[in-house]
From TrEMBL, chains A, B:
Lineage of the species this protein comes from: Bacteria, Pseudomonadati, Pseudomonadota, Alphaproteobacteria, Hyphomicrobiales
Organism: Roseibium denhamense
GO molecular function: DNA binding
Any Pfam family hit: MarR_2
Coiled-coil ranges (or none): none
SUPFAM superfamilies: Winged helix' DNA-binding domain
Keyword DNA-binding: yes
Domain HTH marR-type, residue spans: 34-166
PROSITE patterns tied to this protein: HTH_MARR_2 (PS50995)
Region: Disordered, residue numbers: 1-29
InterPro entries according to UniProt: HTH_MarR-typ, MarR/SlyA-like, WH-like_DNA-bd_sf, WH_DNA-bd_sf
Domain of life: Bacteria
Official protein name in the record: DNA-binding transcriptional regulator, MarR family
Keywords: DNA-binding
Length: 185, 185
DNA sequence: AATTTACGTCAGTCATATTGACTTAATTCT
DNA sequence: AGAATTAAGTCAATATGACTGACGTAAATT
């Protein structure tokens, strides 16, 4: 479920297509309340990734590059193996993307000080700038989405998103994110 | 940014890899607070789509099939054109996926009553069952994520997600979702 | 009668992923 | 010191889901 958008859309009921009407009536009872959240999450995520996509396209990068750049920016000096575990892709998939990022001067590989097998990953000045720009765009959207919500909503949403994550993975992700969770108790 | 997960992950700082420590310290000041939301949203969405992916795999379906099945289930009798506008993919891309769903007996095409050019789309009994199962999985995850949140959180999250969507698209999506917005606003 | 719409199809391409096997170098374990 | 493991890279072949652009046909609308 990715990449959805539409301009002038017409759906049955509006078009009088087949006599059938809009979404099947499941929203009458409270039992299926979060039903609409499914679709909202879908569209929200789509637009959330849309902003970066546009910028990345200028560099002939895709989402795979975004992921790599983002995590290297957040964890300077990380190993290739770490990245593989986080992204859960194969070495081959990462290899290509990583090579392109290195070739484009966005990511730098330095030999490990203690372990010379390692190629520790760092963003270059250019890579840092791109990563920041992409993050900025996503922050702008997030901040806009938080406008007008009651006090404490940001923390509620943070909690909600965390609880959407597989329980097994939460601890790892929290360590990775190192958010304001700890700070707030 | 899709498909991320990890089991035993080690990151610099823990591994003592290169002497560099975890995420670069940007979370000290409140100006960058929603930073962590970026990553949480990323992982949350990943796991959100993970449940359906596993079921779909059994049928040799992917996310593209999920999207199509979902919207047809929600809008029985919709036209191919509607689907193209919602999904914003090309006819060719949809064609293949749709054909597979029809061949697998998940979706049925019926000639429009008033307009015989149309191939109105309906889920079959089987398709309906699969769609329901996929929805059920996502509902379970959503409901689990809502546990323990303060009163009114669901509405807050609904509002948040809506405001994450491009302003131009919101009206269309609201019409499509037909959620409890109207009922409560 | 001409145009537009709904749908389908052909042919070729691209990005991102996959699996499995294999190599090299360096480190760690026994 | 020798064996095993780990980090990283590489090869080859394949799959999925998307793309562009052109073309065809039937049916509806103007």
């Amino acid at each position: 479920m990715t990449d959805v958008n539409f301009k002038t859309m017409s759906l049955p009921g509006q078009t009088g297509a087949g006599g059938t009407s809009g979404p099947s009536d499941q929203s009458s009872d409270d039992a299926s309340l979060p039903y609409d959240l499914i679709e909202l999450l879908f569209f929200a995520y789509r637009d959330f990734t849309g902003d970066p996509d546009d910028v990345l396209a200028k560099f002939d990068f895709g989402r795979a590059h975004h992921r790599v750049l983002h995590f290297v920016e957040r964890n300077p000096g990380m190993m290739v193996t770490d990245l593989l575990n986080i992204l859960r892709i194969t070495k081959q998939s990462l290899g290509r993307v990583l090579k392109q990022l290195v070739d484009a001067g966005m990511i730098e590989q330095r030999e490990g000080l203690h372990d010379r097998r390692q190629r520790l990953l760092y963003t270059t000045e250019q890579g840092h700038a791109l990563a920041e720009e992409l993050t900025r765009l996503q922050k702008v959207r997030l901040e806009r989405a938080l406008i007008g919500l009651p006090n404490g909503s940001e923390e509620t949403i943070r909690q909600f998103l965390l609880q959407m994550i597989d329980p097994d993975a939460r601890a790892d992700i929290l360590a990775l994110v190192r958010s304001s969770f700890d700070l707030k108790g």
